[in-house]
């Protein structure tokens, strides 16, 4: 079946790359880059998004490499790749929000074509691409001042069959854990709106881009393509723990975060993980591991404010 993007038609056995017009900012156009690889054979449509948070670059690199690694002639079904959803934040190199309207791209799905740019982008992503997909994988890393290694989120749903399919997609990656996330304006809205499995992969830190994080996303996506029968070959399914016990460790007072661990590192109960001190060098808080496990989220910013999460320890 042909795949249509705006006025463009991508026939079976064809690949097209381009930009979908979304809106006009005061000084420039806002466009959504897309790559559609329409396979020669019949099969499902997988949509992959990256750069919903604009400085989460390991997933963007993985998405671009994925596109280069797949030829239409070897593909059954359609691979739709949106390598960079939040282009505004990307060129400005700003975290968290789109500077045009100060909205978080991952809180405004499914978007609105008559609203400000972030919501228009969300609408273009869902209406133009995700609505035509059978599966959605939204690739993230940690944002500015954070680090996360090898996690996958599935979304909360009452539909047990759909939940099982999301777990199956998650198992195509090689995560240390899978967590269930609430659907709240994130790409998980696709689960509610279209009844399709959606997972959010999360590995990496904005700078530097680590090769192993790129490969976590890329290898998982290629494994998923095999699992869905879109590429030849045997998929390997992993068996990651779902919603393991986890504890958030946070600062009681702001100051300097002198961390003693890395994201993903294994820790043992009572191990010193770091300390928070004030700006004249006085220790305010010693942070220790509450149980044996691994650091599933790490704040890497040196400056911390009261209430900030320092890290999460998961029982994995
Ligand atoms: Zn993100």
Write the layout of secondary structure elements.
Elements: E1 3-5, E2 8-10, E3 14-24, E4 29-38, E5 41-50, H1 57-69, E6 76-82, H2 87-92, H3 117-128, E7 135-140, E8 146-155, H4 160-171, E9 177-181, H5 189-194, E10 198-204, H6 211-227, E11 246-250, E12 255-259, E13 266-267, E14 272-277, E15 283-288, E16 293-299, E17 303-304, E18 309-314
Parallel strand pairs: 5-6, 5-7, 7-10, 8-9
Antiparallel strand pairs: 1-2, 3-4, 4-6, 8-10, 8-16, 11-18, 12-14, 12-17, 13-16, 14-15, 16-18
The protein binds zinc ion (ZN).
Query: Could you list the spans in which at least 5 consecutive residues all have pLDDT below 50?
Result: none
Number of helices: 6
Bound molecules: zinc ion
Residue share in helices?
10-25%
Could you state the CATH homologous superfamily of the largest domain? Zn peptidases
- Helix-strand topology string: EEEEEHEHHEEHEHEHEEEEEEEE
Main sheet properties? 12 strands, mixed
Number of domains: 2
The fraction of residues assigned to DSSP E strands is: 35-45%
Q: Shape, please? A: globular
Write down the overall mean pLDDT: 97
For the record, the CATH class of the largest domain is: Alpha Beta
Count of distinct strands: 18
The name of the CATH architecture of the largest domain is 3-Layer(aba) Sandwich
Span of the ends, CA to CA: 44 Å
CATH topology of the largest domain, anyone?
Answer: Aminopeptidase
Structural class: alpha+beta
Cα gyration radius (Å): 20 Å
């Amino acid at each position: 079946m042909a795949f249509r993007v705006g006025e463009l038609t991508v026939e079976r056995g064809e690949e097209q790359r381009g930009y979908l017009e979304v809106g006009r900012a005061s000084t420039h156009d806002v466009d959504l880059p897309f790559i559609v690889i329409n396979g020669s054979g019949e099969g499902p449509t997988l949509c992959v998004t990256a750069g919903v948070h604009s400085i989460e670059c390991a997933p963007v690199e993985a998405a671009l490499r994925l596109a280069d690694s797949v030829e239409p002639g070897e593909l059954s079904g359609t691979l739709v790749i949106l390598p960079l959803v939040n282009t505004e934040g990307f060129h400005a190199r700003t975290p968290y929000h789109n500077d045009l309207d100060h909205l978080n791209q991952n809180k405004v799905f499914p978007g609105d074509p008559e609203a400000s740019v972030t919501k228009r982008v969300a609408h273009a992503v869902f209406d133009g691409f995700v609505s035509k997909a059978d599966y959605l994988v939204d690739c993230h890393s940690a944002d500015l001042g954070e680090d996360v290694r090898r996690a996958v989120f599935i979304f909360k749903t009452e539909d047990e069959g759909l939940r099982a399919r999301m777990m199956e997609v998650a198992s195509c990656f090689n995560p240390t854990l899978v967590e269930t996330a609430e659907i709240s304006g994130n790409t998980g809205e696709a689960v509610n709106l279209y009844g399709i499995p959606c997972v959010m992969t999360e590995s990496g830190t904005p700078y530097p881009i680590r090769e192993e994080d790129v490969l976590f996303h890329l290898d998982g996506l290629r494994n998923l393509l095999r699992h869905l029968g879109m590429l030849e070959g045997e998929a390997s399914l992993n068996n990651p723990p779902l919603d393991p016990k986890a504890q958030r460790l946070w600062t009681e007072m702001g100051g300097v975060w002198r961390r003693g661990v890395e994201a993903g590192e294994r820790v043992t109960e009572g191990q010193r993980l770091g300390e928070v001190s004030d700006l004249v060098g006085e220790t305010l808080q010693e942070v220790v591991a509450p149980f044996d496990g691994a650091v599933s989220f790490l704040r890497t910013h040196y400056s911390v404010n009261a209430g900030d999460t320092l890290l999460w320890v998961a029982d994995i």
